[in-house]
Design goal:
This protein is mostly helical. Helices cover 67% and strands 2% of the residues. The longest helix has 31 residues, at 22-52.
Amino acid sequence: MLYLLLSPLADDYQIFNLFRYLTFRSGGAVMTALFVAFIAGPPIIRWLKSVQGKGQPIREDGPQRHLIEKQGTPTMGGFMILLALSVATLLWADLSNVYVWSVLIVTIGFGGIGFADDYLKVSRKSSDGLPGRMKLLLEVAVAGGAIVVMTQLSGNPQATALALPFFKDFLMDLGWFFIPIAIFVVVGASNSVNLTDGLDGLAIVPVMIAAASFGVISYLVGNAVFVSYLQVPGVPGTGELAVFCGALVGAGLGFLWYNAPPAMVFMGDTGSLALGGALGMVGVATKHEVVLAIIGGLFVLETVSVIVQVASYKLTGKRVFRMAPLHHHYEQKGWAESTIVVRFWIIAVVLALIGLSTLKLR
């Protein structure tokens, strides 16, 4: 909004030239989202406590200490993240950009699906929310619609091409077959973050690390100079997603203030599905779908641990892990929650650095 309103004034007033710079607007988005989360956090948490009573239902088949330590903590705190993220993005991004709207619509849409799931859990006082198939169908519909619109309106002749890291100028045009692949990336990323969200602060920091990484990637692939230097596929217009990623980092920082152990609020599916969907859409838009699996490797590990556990139990009757997802396995081994969380953060940082290194290793 500010970009469209104030950047035209730059010819008469030099100070407004700042609004033409992505770096300035990205920084503004970080601070705005952080401020909104700080201000809106306490009243949102009080309201959630008043309407939820006993808070998020705790899985009875999960770690037993959760039934004691986390009982009564309200969920749906992802609403705080979505509010801060949306306000900052709408304020600082170029609202004529199709990539911004595509990513924002998926984020809010997946947040709505997560909200419905959380609402059913709280109202029923059960850990069972939306049926799995219904949730998956809704996610596919939202992601598919946004991806089709983005590929058709972006004006990019390579919109349906798939890029691979470590290869210069490698683009495989898949045509309409790209759509189901992109949907898989977005839905997979969404549910991977959802599986990771099981301990205080465990999911939100890796999400911020991934968002910051993709903020850099968005800025670079949207800039012709850097595209030429790095020999990466250029996607004009995706630079604006750096503003969105900045807003996501700011909103995540604000939420972490209240989600730090012991958490005052959980993000719930309202937050985890939305944040994962956002990262997936940014990965698709910037042609870094494969790199997303590297930067978000922690989420992939958590998801694989669940798949391996279920497959092993069904085929052999034996469990590979003491409990899945992976973070619960280490809980059952006696690791302290803070130890698991911090070590998983370290893994997320290392994977992000590896993912960013693919920008030059081509």
